[in-house]
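pinned: reference chain
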Amino acid sequence: MTVSAGLARGLLRLAVSKGADQALLLARAGIAEKDLEDQDRRIAFAKYVALMRHGQRLSGDPALALHYGETHDLAEVSVVGLLAYACETMADATKQLNRYGRLVVEFDGPPNRFSFTTDSRGLWLIDNRGNPNDFPELTESTFARSICGPKRFGVTDGARAVEVTHSAPDYRDEYVRVLGVPVTFDAPRNAILLNAAVLSQRVAVQPRYAFGIFAQHADALLEELRNSKTTRGQVEASLVSILHTGEASIEVVADKLGVSRSTLFNRLQDDGTTFSRVLDELRRKLAVDYLRGKKVSVNETAYLVGFSEPAAFSRAFKRWTGQSPRRFRSQLMA
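pinned: its structure tokens
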């Protein structure tokens, strides 16, 4: 499982603002600073957990997750937040969170992380994440953000009570301050009792035309995330790091993925492709991207995509595009 780099970057900045040493915190979490430069990049969930836990210790703030949800809006760390702000109502925003939420945090559980149910007390928003007590800090930050975030556009009475499945921490009083509602610990579910009127509350912080722009970007990221889970996606990710070495063989990639050559061959066959085809198509895509970027020469591009001889690269490029790489590049420079 993974989280967005934007989510991790926001947490890092909060911990540092509270006194944590950035270099030490990153080292203990096993995260390189460059990995957080692109907020759409993926960070291993385990590293995010480590970032949270070490951030709590190094900042001296055991309630760091609550404070992260309280102070950092989702729109600051992910396109998903911007998308929600372009929705007409809170009900619509919740639908979009279900659709795109895995771009922020991947989770165990049913397809929809959030659902609604009613009982004698009223309307409840349920967090369906599996094994929530393994990392209750995610419940803390999610619920704090869900309650505090809408206050920024006028929803001051959206929640009336909270239930969480984990036991009360030493900082339970901070729950009441941040969430502003009664909290029940050791409950059978993670849920927020809502003021039903909040679902029809108008959002539309972003102009409506922005919804399509944000949705298009989010759809592309979601497709990329899905592809990364396939065998083909895993092979491509492995190849990118070794193409320039000239050792891009199925044996090397199988070893990197921890499987046998025959297992990898069969899995790719199940995906309807072959190693040679994946390698060839990845080389084509990267070569075109490098040349369009206009920052590397034809010979450098040949090296970067794994060709030891420029002539062999030129023949392959002409097969891919119908023209030589030099002609392709000169047309772009014109």
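why pinned: Residues 209-228 form the longest helix (20 residues). The radius of gyration is 24 Å.
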